[in-house]
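Re: the 189-residue chain
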Amino acid sequence: MKKLIRTIGCVCLLVLLLAACKSSRTALTKPSLKETRYLSSKLQVTIPGGGGSMTAGGTMKLKEGERVQISVLMPIIRSEIARIEITPDDVLLIDRMNKRYVRASRRELEEILPRDANYAALEKLLFAASLPNGRADMSGKELGIPLLENTRVKLYDFSTEPFVLNGSEVSDKYIQVPLPVLLKMLSEL
C-alpha cells in the first residue's frame, strides 16, 4: 500500500513538474492583425488679428484610420469654444460660443482644400510631428487650410496610450450652417 501511494505521489509530482515547465507559447499562432495606433497631444493655436494675436490651448486626439478630434479651449476658463472632428469621409466643426456647426463631406471640401489634403496625409503629418525631431509647430497652410496660412499650431506633450474616441454628438440647440458660412468664419479669424 505504501508503495502504491509513493508511486501515485511520484506520478503526481512528475505531472506537476511537467505542467510547470510548459511553455506559454502555442505551436501554431495566428498572424496578429495590425493594431490601431493612437496619438494624443496638447496644442496651442495662435491666430493673428488686427490688434495683435489671440492664443488658445486645447487637445488633439487621433485614432488611426478613424478620426482626429481637436478641441480648442478658452484661455483661463478652459471651457471648450470649438471642436473640429475629421474622419476619412467628413469634417465636423462645432462652434460652442455661437451654438452652430458645419458638417461637410470630403467631396464638398475637395473644391476648397489643396489636392494633396486628405485624411491619410493629416494622419501622417501628425504622427511625424510626434517623433523626437518631428516638426510640431506648423501654419494653417501646412495643415492643409490655406485660408488660415498665418495661424500657427504647436503640438506638444505627445502620448501614444490607447483611449476611447467616440464621434461627437451635436445637440438640438445647435444650428447647422452651410459650408460657405464656415469659409466666411475661417476667413474672419
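The radius of gyration is 26 Å.
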